[in-house]
Write the C-alpha cells for this entry.
Amino acid sequence: MTAKDALTERYQDLLSVYLKAKTETTLYKGQQFSRKLLEQQISPEDLVSLHIQVMDELFPNMSEEMRDSFDFLLEAMIGYGFAYREHQSLRDKQQQLESEIEVAASMQQTLLLSDVPEFDELDIGVVSVPAKKMNGDYYNFVKSGSSLSVAVADIIGKGIPAALCMSMIKYAMDSLPEEQMKPHLLLENLNRVVEQNVNSNMFITMFHGVYEPESHKFFYAGAGHEPGFIYHAKEDQFHDLIAKGLVLGVSRTTTYHPYERVVEVGDMVILLSDGVTECRTSKGFIEREEIVSLIRKYMDLPAQNVVENVFQELDRLQGFELRDDFTLIILKRMV
Amino acid sequence: MDIQSCVEVRNEWDIVSARQLGRNMAKELGFGNVDQARITTAISELARNIYLYAGRGKICIEPIDQLGRKGLRIVALDNGPGIREIRKVMEDGYTTSGGLGAGLPGVKRLMDEFSIESTVDVGTEISATKWLR
C-alpha cells in the first residue's frame, strides 16, 4: 500500500465515522490528521481531490451538481496549492541562508579573535557580544615590544556588511608597520584604507591606544568613537577619555590629534562601543553616569570580572535583548 | 491526436480557449482531476504572461510519448520584448504584475519539466511538460 493509499483509507475511515456520529473526538482526530498531511507535504488541492475520491466511494449516488461542485472547489484550491509550494521552497531557501550565515559567523569569530596578552603591569578585561549573529564591533590587542596596543572599532551599520568590513580593518591593521603604531598615525593610515575600499555610505568609528609600561603613559587617538573613561585612583574619580577626530572613511586627508595621559597605580582605562552607552531600558537610554556607577560597583574585582558583571547587568536591564553589538574593555594598572 | 494544437493568445478570452484545449487533451490522455487542474492552471499562467507582457503570442499543446512514457507538453511562444533577467523571474516572490500571480516558478513546480528561452526584443519560448503517472 502506498503512502497515498494509506492516507486515503485513513481519511475515509475518519470521515465515515464522523458522518455517522458527529463527535468532537472525531473532529479532533481530523485536526491531527491534517498535521500528518502537512508532514507528508500534501498540498491543499490534493486534499480536496482525496475528499472527492472518498465521497465518490461513500456516496455512489451523489447528485451530479454536488459532484461537479467538488470539481469547481478543486479548481479554486489550485491557487492555495501554488502558495503552499512557494512557501515550502522559500522555507528551504531560508534554512539554507541561515546555515550559511552560521558558517560565516563562526568564521568571523575565528578570524577576529584577539588573545588578551599578559602584562605584569596591567590587568586586562574584555567582553564583546554581537546583537545579531555577526559582530560589527571589533577589538584588537597587540603586544609590540614592551607596549600594549589596543583598538576598539564600530561599524555604523550592523550584520553581515559590517562584519565583512571589520575583517578588512583587521587585515589593514595587521599589515601596518610597527613604527606606525602611534595611535594618530595608525588612524590616518586606516582612514585612507577605508576611504579607498569601503562604500561611501559606510563609516567606521575607532579608538586606538598604546600603553607604554616604561613611562606609564597611555597614548591615544579617536575617529568619531564613543569616548571611554579614565579612572584616577588618587582622586577616586572617572573622567571622559575624549579624543576628537572624524570617523574613518569620510575624507582622504583627515588627520588625527595625538593625546596622552599618565596612568598611576590603581588607575583604569575604560574603552567601549556605543552598544554600551546606547543600552535602552524602559526608562530610555542609559546615562554614561550609570555605566560609571556600574563599573564602580564592581571595580575591586579583577578586570575580567568587572566587564562581565557590567555586561550581565546591562543585559538584564534590557530584557536580554541587545540592540547593538556590545564591547567593553578595561585596562587597570596594577604596579 | 498526435498533432500539436495551438491557440492564438490576443485577449483574455483566448486564455479560456487555451485552457479548454489543454483540459480536453489532459482528459483524453487520462490525467486525473488534480493534474488536469494543475495543467490548466499552468496554461492560464503562461497565457496570461503572453497577454500581459507580449500582447500576443500562442499556446500550443501536444501529447508526447517517449518510449511508452506518456505526457503532455505546453509550449508558450511570443515575439514580445523578451525577458532581460531570466534568473530573476525564476526567483520566488518576484512577480512584476504585483498581483497574486504564481509566476514562472509556480508554473515550474506545477509541471514536471520546464524550460525557458528568451531573447530581448525577439521573444520568449517556454515549454513545460507533465508526465502521466
User: Anything to note?
Assistant: Chain A touches chain B through 17 residues (CB under 8 Å). The mean pLDDT of chain A is 88. The longest strand of chain A covers residues 147-156.
